[in-house]
Amino acid sequence: MRLLNLRVNGDALSTAAPAHWTLLEVLRYRLGLTGSKQGCDKGDCGACTVLVDGKPVLSCLTLAALVEGREVTTIDGLMPAHIRAGGTGADPVQEAFDRCGALQCGFCQPGMMLSARALLNRTPHPTRAEIKDALAGNLCRCTGYTQILQAVELVIAEAGGAAVVPTDWRAELEQ
Amino acid sequence: MAARDNHGNTPPWGANFGVIGKPLRKVDGIAKATGAAIYTDDIQLPGMLHAKTLRSPHAHARVRSVDASAALALEGVHAVITGADMPIKYGVIPWTQDENALAVDRVRFIGDPVAAVAAVDEDTANAALKLIAVDYEVLHAFLDPFESLVRHEPAIHADRKEGNISKHVRLEFGEVDALAKSADVVLEDEYSFHGSTHAPIEPHCAVATFSADGLLTLWSATQITHYVHRALAQVLELPAQKIRVIQPCLGGAFGGKSDPFSLEFCVSKLAMVTGRPVKMLYTREEVFYAHRGRHPMFMKYRTAAQANGRITSVDAKILIDGGSYSSFGLVTTYYAGQLLTGPYDFPSYRFDSTRVFTNKPPCGPKRGHGSVQPRFAFEVQLDQLAERLKLDPIELRRVNFQGSQTRTVNGQRVTSNGFLECLDSVERASGWKKKRAKLPFGRGLGVAGSMYISGTNYPVYPNKMPQAGVQLKLDRSGVVTVFTGGNDIGQGSNSMCAYIVAEELGVPVEHVRVVAADTDLCPVDLGAYSSRVTFMVGNATIDACRKVRRQIVAAVAKKWAVDPGRVRLMPGVAIDLEDPAKALSTAEAFQLAEEEFDTLGATGSYNTPTLGGDYRGGSIGASPAYSFTAHVVEASVDTETGRIQVHDVWCAHDCGRALNPMLVAGQIEGSVYMGIAEALLEEHKVNRFGLHQGPSLLDYRLPTSVDTPELHALIVESLDPEGPYGAKEAGEGPLHSSIPALSNAIFDAVGIRMKHLPFTPGRVLELLREKDALEESKSAGAAARGQA
Ligand code: FES
Ligand code: FES
């Protein structure tokens, strides 16, 4: 057992866990922050992505002890952070994913949305290729990624105040 | 067909919908976005134990004995169970129940479960597994389906009359051979489809509790709660009334969570013997071995046609590698033949399909169950036919279109059919006429078409009860709760129910609560498979809504002293169509109805009409409606490296009416992504010992955002006469023709026929070399003739 002093979603939290436990295990099974998902437990899928000091990190490959003293953000913390910053409701990334239909089963999406959030924090106006690159470590088995890319682009457009023309999948037929 | 089953494709009050057809959010979207949604592994109960499975290291062996005494003696271990604790067999198809939760006397693939341990934590459970001693007598392992066809000793399932044959079906319709003889052109060729797996990002997980008064509760990542409920009762020998099965939020399935799985029985039994809650979460490696993925198939097709392209005869012979258990295999064997008979019309058809057992992870239903593989073979053959007849491949498909309101050669009823519009749509969107056969060498376009079922009229266990049931509860506050046994596996079926309730009862979608997939709370539904949910649960929801709607309308009409025909329920308000100033909120309307009729609620159900051909197996593949799809793929081939790059895929899908076009587009895109992925990258394969070649999400190569081509989802709405508001399926059909369309694009690009999956660079280079050699010998021959 090891005593862990962590900073998660703005809170200082202490817990104890076996020394070999990963950050993902501690978040989910000690701190009850089950928003972060485990898809493979070996660094292949990205479902467990969290932000450590603002950078996306695979929490299933990160020993919990290694992030002591650093700021961990999980999907559970995005909405509260947005509210603390004066916003209402969920983070614009979360909203956009919902509005664009990107959340099918949703299991990959906590990691996906955090990767997207980290990208937008460092590059507010990424190109489509840059978005794809930033999300390439997050596997999604449901969407084919299209609606995910649309969601990220929606956040960018709305942050810039642009009006967004909704996709019409039937337009082609009516021509 | 009972009148209750058909509500027409337009509501009696007209088709100016307030909710249906709009790209609305999902009811569970924001919970998923914020991490609040609870999946099975998110459940933690006080005192919960963790369970692990010991699996066979041999592909085929007799289990002589299992000694768990050392494991049981380990501190922290609470129980070890083996096959002897649950000897009763189960299987999703009642006629072919050949699985045990834990091996009884035989293991049939590497990874077959042998024993399960419950301990205070996972580490202790894993340590205990190492202490279990199993004495195996290794048997000959069948790893080649062609061997299983002819060699039956040692039988993989000893009690089967047909040795290692799992199922054989041969059906013939019309004058197959005579018509082939009289045809202008006959094509014969061989094709093969490799194994692929679902790889949902959420691994299988189950949690069970057993109360002091004998009630078993199971939370499981399943896509068919009802069958798990039945299987638990059977295997655990508990009355069904003592079992409750709940599907929490589900992290993807694609058919891979349709069977009852070993872990569901193990956690239940372990909870019963320990008196503690028990959880088991499969590792990713275990998910690969649990499998139930796409069956490898070896296929021969002979297609005969007239010079104008009209197909006259199709003859198919198919060998199916089933892996070690039956699973849905009986249905797979039928589907491999039964689902080919559209969107084209041909007067004669024969198929002979045989599923064999091998000592590999068991195959089962993966998105497009049983019909993706034959569709690949047939649509490539149609392209070969177009080449031979010098016809445009789209034209060839048009010429053979079967039409709507018709019957297929194998006696299936086809109602709506938007296939021609699908073809038009992809032809136009892709720029087919400008590009096909006109792009520079190395880049090309290919087309293919397909059809799929919207549910099946064949319930897995024969019964005459509804296939879908829905219950409504209306609250004075204006909230409606809908209870459905349907399984939302990410496709959005809970949202679909909410949209229908909102449309029918005039409530905003956010005032509809959906309680789903809980056997204690919800009426039975047969679950999320065969693309049945929108069609069947949707119809059942309409059915329930219409009953209670009548009451609301009557109460409001009485209050206003007007004819009920004048009352219209809109999202949030009831209005008088002739006097719009008269309006009541939904809550007020509900309260009037409650005063008038007592507590408000209703049930609704759906059952298919009698369908299917008049022959043995004629109801398998019979669906109340079929969806249709056309794909055009644009791809290029690097002739140096053999690498294929898919640039764009246009997929037009006839889903009847799109209840939510955004969710339909998501299903189309996800299907196309999955089809292209299994064509190019994925392969579920074992080595010569039966060991999986790469049971990880790195080795089993799922495409990332960077690898995925541009996907263009095009919705075609043919308005089915019997679907809910005319809707049909969208979750599986759009996968089918993506794969042959890619093969056909490769032919257009570089002139080679990809007839065997997956399309690896090695295979491309080999075919390119063959083609070059052939052309060289041809030109050498021509030169020689020139000299002579
Ligand atoms: S769970 Fe961490 S990468 Fe898959
Ligand atoms: S939404 Fe299901 S895996 Fe991405």
Brief characterization of the structure:
Chain A is an alpha+beta fold and 175 residues long. Chain A is built from seven helices and five strands.
Give short descriptive properties of this protein.
heterodimer; A: 175 residues; alpha+beta; 5-stranded mixed sheet; 7 helices; 5 strands; 38% helix; B: 788 residues; Aldehyde Oxidoreductase, domain 4; 3 domains; 7-stranded mixed sheet; 20 helices; binds FE2/S2 (inorganic) cluster
Number of domains of chain A: 2
Q: Going across the major beta sheet of chain B, what is the strand order? A: 3-5-1-12-9-10-11
Distance between the termini of chain B: 75 Å
Note the total helix count of chain A. 7
Secondary-structure element sequence of chain A? Answer: EEHEEEHHHHHH
Question: Could you characterize what this model shows?
Answer:
- The complex is a heterodimer of chains A (175) and B (788).
- By secondary structure, chain A is an alpha+beta fold.
- Chain A has helices spanning 23-30, 75-84, 92-99, 109-122, 128-135, 146-159, 171-174, and strands at residues 2-8, 11-17, 49-52, 55-58, 71-73.
- Chain A folds into 2 domains: 2-74, Beta-grasp domain (Ubiquitin-like (UB roll)), CATH 3.10.20.30; 77-162, DNA polymerase, domain 1, CATH 1.10.150.
- Chain A is built from 7 helices and 5 strands; from the N terminus they run E-E-H-E-E-E-H-H-H-H-H-H.
- A 5-stranded mixed sheet of chain A has the order 2-1-5-3-4, with helices on both faces.
- Chain A is globular, with a radius of gyration of 17 Å.
- Chain B is of the alpha+beta class and 788 residues long.
- Chain B folds into 3 domains: 3-37 and 465-606, Aldehyde Oxidoreductase, domain 4 (2-Layer Sandwich); 46-139 and 201-252 and 257-290, Aldehyde Oxidoreductase, domain 3, CATH 3.90.1170.50; 297-458 and 613-769, Aldehyde oxidase/xanthine dehydrogenase, molybdopterin binding domain (Aldehyde Oxidoreductase, domain 4, 2-Layer Sandwich).
- Chain B is built from 20 helices and 28 strands.
- In chain B, the strands form 7 sheets. Chain B has a 7-stranded mixed sheet with strand order 3-5-1-12-9-10-11, sandwiched between helices. Chain B has a 5-stranded mixed sheet with strand order 7-15-14-13-8.
- In chain B, strand 10, helix 6 and strand 11 (243-246) form a beta-alpha-beta unit.
- Chain B is globular.
- The N and C termini of chain B lie far apart (75 Å).
- The model of chain B has no long low-confidence stretch (mean pLDDT 96).
- The interface between A and B is large, with 66 and 69 residues.
- One FE2/S2 (inorganic) cluster binds next to loops of chain A.
